[in-house]
Write a structure and sequence with these properties.
This protein has 754 residues and is of the alpha+beta class. It has 13 helices and 38 strands. α3 runs antiparallel to α4 (64-76), α4 packs antiparallel against α5 and α6 (102-112) packs antiparallel against α7. InterPro entries: TPR-like_helical_dom_sf (IPR011990), WD40 (IPR011659).
Length: 754
């Protein structure tokens, strides 16, 4: 689909399918139907063109290229089901004249109907036979698409059960396209629609649980528009300025869009729209999808544009202006950079100020459909790696115009997905409301010492989320004054570890299973006084055994005498308790578990002082079974220079009090089989779980030598696993330097430190 079609899509101007089927098509010769289909296609009426091409084929089945042309036109109007039907018979003609990659387009249509496994098979089949000069480019595209299929096949795992989705009532949604919702006050919604044949902004008011008033064109727009199509706008924080898009066709089928501003006069009336300066609306470019926020004394405008200097397609940009200046004089636009923009298209930005998060849609990343909604924390030029927001906000279709509004109890998005019984076709976009059931719990309180008034000073508080008995560190704060605040999730188990000088460590659990939506509670923690330890009796020291032989006894030093590694940490004979997590024995036991996982029997033995897995002769001599080709790690970031000697990057996926291998099995599947888990014990008995390349580097360092490879793997982990807070750490001569980062700019640090 060409970029103009993406602009048409975002303005609701893609023509709906002509309401006939092939059996009722005009009774004309196949040649005349073909000629008329070509004319319709040239005019941009792809729905009617598809119908005429398909009808011509029914008369002349010896011309399968007619079926191919019908399938391509159906795909352009996002009639995925009919595209699959037409392209299925020509999908193998990838290297024939008059066909442009029909197998690839067939696979795309399958994916957007939600047939993910069939789509994966079709993508791989296309790659096996395609001989075109752009094979490398197609390999990269298909890698992304297959990863999207893999992502979608795990839909249940990625579905947020707290989010409900509802199709808005008929007074808003129609058989045409509705898009660009703008929540305004508690029960008023502005939105755009093509119901009149051109795109306009309308207003509706909620009148009941599922009902809205009839749409109306707001008086502030009446008779003031320069161009026939206008839509997708954003009000300033004070409601006195409105930024929006006006578009017109400058050539046959070629759309050009610009951003305009309307300002409210002192008497409450609205001035006529004014186009922003030509350094915002760059000549011979498209500038659209404005979203504006206020920060301190600045107004920041985010927008989409295909102007020169971008990463490819439509990119997201920003410009700012001083609010003291009464005129809309913005700074020169700046590209949001590679953490946001790709070689594809990025559109419909929305910035959620409370969480410092940018939401946008893109077709240039791993997606379940065409355009998926992504999010990234940051602002202006500092952003973290963008993450797919998952299901049910995303679907097999196109999902865009995401916006949050607390007054509307959730937010809105736009999608062409089917939604029985209200929406049965994918050829038009509708507006959906999403509600998020109370999934947040706010906890605050003081940390005090026994017998001491007021909060303690210099307190360390660690917060762990307990998942299936596994305690994963999600926050580690050093408080100058012992007062804390946490934004927690409902229906979760947590563990607090609190320490201060002069007091023993305090461990306290907390369950949010029975908390109410958005409930706020206070809980104070009191650290007990340190107890005076009794003087231990002096007993003769027992012979010392090396820590490694406590884990695996020394006598197990032959393949014929392997040792079955137990599931539990060895007992300390002097205490009768398992070795502590900060002990050398515990650390060695964790490493031994990783070796044992390589054995089908879980057995290990010493070989030349190295612990190795037991492999039976059958296992050792068995050739691995052939498996279907899987997509590797998508290279979202272009190669960066290799780090200097002794410097490497490691990906931290978790920090745990006790490592349990089964919790990390998903990090040893698919493309991640090319990497290994690493472990780094730190203070407090906590172990960092890391992702590393299989081999050490030539300079002896452990980790990725280029930042780009680390970020590409990180992006895959964030989208394909439950480890949504993973990040990259920099290591110099084996020591962690800095707090870590999730983008190309190391100095930006972790915007979301939890």
């Amino acid at each position: 689909m060409k970029r103009t079609n993406y602009l048409l899509l975002s303005l609701g101007l893609l023509l709906l399918p002509f309401m006939l089927d092939a059996q009722r098509a005009p009774q004309k010769s196949w040649k005349k139907l073909k000629r008329e289909a070509a004319e319709f296609e040239k005019l941009g009426d792809n729905s009617r063109a598809a119908l005429y091409y398909e009808s011509a084929y029914t008369q002349k089945s010896s011309k399968p290229e007619l079926l191919y042309m019908a399938g391509v036109c159906y795909l352009k109007v996002r009639d995925y089901a009919n595209a699959v039907k037409c392209l299925a018979d020509v999908k193998d003609k990838n290297n024939e004249k008059n066909y442009d990659k029909p197998g690839y387009q067939y696979a795309l249509a399958l994916k957007q109907t939600g047939q993910y496994q069939a789509a994966k098979d079709a993508f791989n089949e296309f790659l096996k036979v395609y001989k075109g000069s752009d094979q490398a480019e197609m390999q990269a595209k298909i890698t992304t698409e297959i990863q999207g299929c893999n992502f979608a096949l795990k839909a249940q795992e990625y579905t947020n059960p707290n989010i409900s989705l509802n199709h808005l009532a008929l007074n808003i949604n129609t058989e045409k396209t509705e898009f660009a919702p703008i929540p305004f006050s508690n029960n008023v919604l502005y939105f755009s629609s093509s119901i009149s044949g051109v795109s306009k902004i309308y207003r509706s008011q909620k009148t009941g649980e599922d009902s809205w008033s009839s749409r109306q064109v707001p008086t502030l727009f009446a008779g003031k528009m320069e161009k026939p199509h206008y839509g997708n706008g954003s009000f300033s924080a004070d409601g006195k300025r409105f930024y929006f898009t006006e578009c017109d066709f400058v050539k046959a089928g070629e759309l050009q869009c610009m951003i305009y501003i309307m300002s409210q006069n002192e008497d409450g009336s609205w001035a006529n729209p004014q186009a922003l300066a030509d350094y915002i609306n760059a000549p011979e470019s498209n500038t659209t999808h404005p979203f504006v926020i206020t920060k301190e004394d600045k107004e920041i405008l985010y927008f989409a544009s295909d102007r020169e200097g971008g990463k490819g397609g439509l990119d997201l940009w920003y410009a700012s202006r001083d609010l003291k200046d009464k005129e809309a004089k913005f700074s020169l636009p700046k590209n949001l950079g590679p953490n946001i923009n790709t070689a594809g298209d990025e559109i419909t930005p929305f910035y959620h100020f409370p969480s410092q998060t940018l939401y946008f849609s893109t077709n240039g990343r791993i997606s379940a459909g065409g355009f998926d909604i992504f999010k990234s924390k940051g602002e202006m030029l500092k952003w973290e790696v963008a993450q797919n927001v998952g299901f049910p906000l995303n679907s097999a279709a196109d999902d865009l115009y995401f916006i949050i509004n607390e007054a509307h109890k959730g937010g809105y998005l736009v999608s062409n997905r089917t939604f029985d019984p209200h929406k049965v076709t994918t050829t038009n976009d509708d507006i959906f409301h999403f509600g998020q059931e109370g999934s947040r719990f706010f906890l605050s309180g003081k940390i005090m010492g026994e017998g001491k008034e007021g909060p303690l000073e210099d307190v360390n508080i660690k917060l762990f989320e307990v998942i299936d008995g596994n305690e994963e560190l999600i926050s580690d704060k050093m408080l100058a004054v012992g007062e804390y605040k946490f934004d927690l999730k409902t229906k979760k188990e947590y563990l607090f570890e609190i320490s201060a000088e002069g007091y023993p460590k305090l461990l306290k659990t907390l369950s949010t299973e029975d908390t109410q939506p958005n409930e706020k509670k206070q809980r104070n923690f009191v650290l007990p006084k340190a107890k005076v330890a009794a003087v231990p009796e002096i007993t003769p020291e027992a012979p010392q055994i090396e820590a490694r032989f406590i884990v695996v006894p020394e006598e197990f030093s032959d393949r014929d005498m392997a040792y079955l590694l137990p599931d539990e940490v060895p007992l300390n004979e002097s205490t009768g308790e398992p070795y502590a997590e900060d002990s050398e024995v515990y650390d060695l036991f964790i490493k031994a578990q990783e070796v044992a996982k390589l054995s089908m029997t879980g057995e290990v033995y010493w070989q030349d002082e190295v612990l190795v897995p037991y492999m039976s002769e059958t296992t050792a001599n068995t050739e691995p079974e052939e498996t279907p080709e899987e997509a590797g790690i998508f290279e979202l970031y272009a190669p960066t220079p290799e780090a200097e000697e002794g410097v490497a990057y490691q990906i931290q996926v978790a920090a745990v009090r006790k490592y349990r291998a089964y919790r990390f099995e998903e990090l040893q599947e698919g493309p991640l089989l090319d990497y290994r888990l690493g472990f780094e014990p730190i203070d407090g008995g906590i172990t960092r779980v890391m992702i590393l390349p299989l081999e050490s580097n030539a300079d002896g360092s452990e980790g990725f030598k280029t930042k780009s490879e680390a970020l590409n793997v990180l992006s895959y982990i964030l989208d394909h696993s439950r480890f949504k807070t993973a990040f990259v750490g920099r290591y110099e001569n084996g020591e962690r330097v800095g707090e870590g980062f999730r983008g190309l700019d190391e100095d930006a640090g972790l915007i979301d430190k939890n």
